[in-house]
Please model this.
Amino acid sequence: MDYSHSQEVSDLENGDFLLKPCSKEILNGRTLQNVSSSIMRKKSDPVLVSSVRFQMLRHFLANLQEVILGTKLAVLFPAIPLAIAADFYKFGRPWLFAFSLLGLTPLAERVSFLTEQIAYYTGPTVGGLLNATCGNATEMIIALFALYQNKIHVLKYSLLGSILSNLLLVLGTSLLCGGLANLKKEQRYDRKQADVNSLLLLLGLLCHILPLMFRYAIGESPVTFHYTLELSRASSIVMLLAYVAYIIFQLKTHRQLFESQEGREEEEEEGDAVIGFSSACSWLIGMTMIIALLSEYVVGTIEAASDSWGISVSFISIILLPIVGNAAEHAGSIIFAFKNKLDISLGVALGSATQISMFVVPLCVVVGWTMHVHMDLDFSLLETGSLAFTIIITAFTLQDGTSHYMKGVVLFLCYIVIAACFWVHKIPQNQITVGKAFNGVFSA
Model:
């Protein structure tokens, strides 16, 4: 009986059941439908489950290859488990900082990749908003952890450094490499979108300068600090409103000003998403959580790394952290500049700087307001002066709509000079103590 049943299973799986004489079971009342349903229950369920599991495993491995191994920065991914091990086994805070900093580099680039994949499914409007939100996810998460730990000087330095890095390092090296790669071609770009970003950066600069001038005009005192804080909060609300207007301007009312950039990008690289929408969202959430963990390590160990390496906190925050956070923008901008697509390079560099200046900075002020942390827009004289000259030099560089490698040389050398300035700059300990004392007075 068992032999005949197994034979029927074999015959049905091979498609030969109907070609053979009817069995005794069928003659006794078991129909073909009953036999097949019995076989499906007994034999095919494990096969189907195994097939589904195999498909899921193959799908996961394909996504793993695209997301993890799809970048040249994949060699830095082992730094992530090393950072976790350094924290678990107490290797030392400088080691934890170094591994965390290295681990953030490929994560920042992959977050940019995943937002592009999601944009294939959500459309240009939602995709643009998603890119605006996640484009500087690393800097934003680091800033929020610094705000939570009340390390206001680290927060201000990292945000300032991100703006300087995008305007001078990213844009400068892009113009330099693009000019050298296209010596026999006239490099041109659309001035309209550059003018819009320059205007927003100048508005943000005004909102940074006014609290500084107010403090110097009134004099140092706890009352001055209080009114500077109120002025900064009011200015931050204005900056956020301006950024919302910029998003509407870019994605809705005057989208044609930015379509030249998007159209050229689509002509250069036509294709579909390489991973699914749900997979991209899952990977994005997972990587954001890892970025949050590493950012907490970075913020918590930056002073220990500064003391151990003999490098000022200002240099680490203004130079090293933004280079890590802007790795994706830097690489992409240079690649497009090599291909003589300066509209895209300018959109990447200026757009990222505008996001930091007009969205992330005022957002930190407002979030600190809700957390009773006294974050303001007074970035001190040296830092605000560096920001002012950077924005003015960038605006002058982009005023004629043409480019050559000499413009890139000037911007890059400006960044080197500012980096040298903060290499020798040390935060006075009494200044940090006074700031914390003011916070304690108003908290009480």
Remarks:
- Strands lie at 187-188, 402-403.
- The chain has 18 helices and two strands.
- Residues 8-44, 261-268, 429-438 have pLDDT under 50 and may be disordered.
